[in-house]
Amino acid sequence: MATEIDFRQLVEEAGDAVIASDASGVIVLWNAAATRIFGFTRDEALGQTLDLITPERFRARHWAGYRVTMETGVTRYGATLLRVPALHRDGRSLSIAFTVTLLRDGAGKVEQIVAIVRDETERWQEERTLKAKLKTLEAREGIGN
């Protein structure tokens, strides 16, 4: 028995953020998880560029890669999990992990880039704390010298 999937509901109810942007980098899709992770409501995010969540020091590199992907229709990231810093609405830094998907028109030209995003800030901070503790223990024991 075939089951019809309601993809709008799937995107809206997903635990990970689903963010789509058009050829110029303007946000055209922002689900509830994106609001939870980044703090911006759907109305605040839609129509804005990805600068909304991209730290200023990474914007030039982000846009250079974005333009190349839109022009060539090729991304080297595909199923690769990317880990980068991002911005929350309140200005604090986040650590996010995401994959991207290219959505194409009937002629095969990329129209949108969709990112599936997970907040890894807590995990990243825990890992950082553990590394610092390990470094302290190794120094105390004279390991690694």
UniProtKB/TrEMBL annotation:
Domain named PAC: residues: 80-132
Gene Ontology biological process terms in this record: regulation of DNA-templated transcription
Gene3D superfamilies, A to Z: PAS domain (3.30.450.20)
Superkingdom of origin: Bacteria
Database matches in SUPFAM superfamilies: PYP-like sensor domain (PAS domain)
TM regions (residue ranges): none
Residues of the PAS domain: 3-56
InterPro entries with a match to the protein in the record: Biofilm_reg_signaling, PAS, PAS-assoc_C, PAS-like_dom_sf, PAS_fold
Protein name in the entry: PAS domain S-box-containing protein
